């Protein structure tokens, strides 16, 4: 019984330590023109951002409502009142015990709204990053949060179908390592792809990589004219050899020529052996 209790206590402490080790990110209430935006659209965007922040590995989120309540208790205004002063914004984040404070300013009209996001380290008072999120235009809150808080993870996949597995792949002039699956992780955006091999023309095109998506490309490698001619010539010669009768093959001709040379030598030797230079013709 004592062992079971000790084990349960150890697991509880381990879970508590893991939770404390997580980065705590607070989301400030979204604002429009310096004032907190309580519209339905702002509330929906806030919920999506909170969910996206909580989904990051090793991250916990302080909801915007909790941040707003803490500011009211401290009789403090929102980040917009700091007028861009990073030290002021960092202090607001420290009030809720967060390591990072994320702020957002809304702009645009109607359903197509743009949210300008920023992240400040509450310990150093330095800006960690900034990005924009265009709601309703194919951009997701998850992608915006990754761009802001984990830019190294803002990647997609490039999958190549190669007819020649030994072909060399370059992206933006940089050689990619070989991949057994033909899949490579690349930053989101447009990249210059080049696939090369000594016996074919280079395959060159631009590819667009999207966040969390796989871009598939069928690589078409066209043989070089000289290589193609040599291949066709060898194939034609092989077909001709397969149709040629045995007595016209190279080995039959060579053997016949050798036999003829031997017979000619024998005849010449025989004639020379019976020749008498002193014989007088009548």
- Unreliably modeled segments: 1-20
| C-alpha geometry | rod-shaped
Structural class: alpha+beta
Percentage of residues in DSSP E strands: 25-35%
**What count of helical segments does DSSP give?**
7
Query: What spatial order of strands do you see in the largest sheet?
Result: 4-1-5-6-7
How many whole angstroms does the radius of gyration measure?
40 Å
Helix content range:
25-40%
CATH class of the largest domain: Alpha Beta
Topology pattern, helix = H, strand = E: HEEEHEHHEEEHEEEEEEEHH
The total of beta strands comes to 14
Q: How is the CATH topology of the largest domain named?
A: Rossmann fold
Secondary-structure arrangement, i.e. CATH architecture of the largest domain: 3-Layer(aba) Sandwich
Q: How far do the termini sit from each other?
A: 141 Å
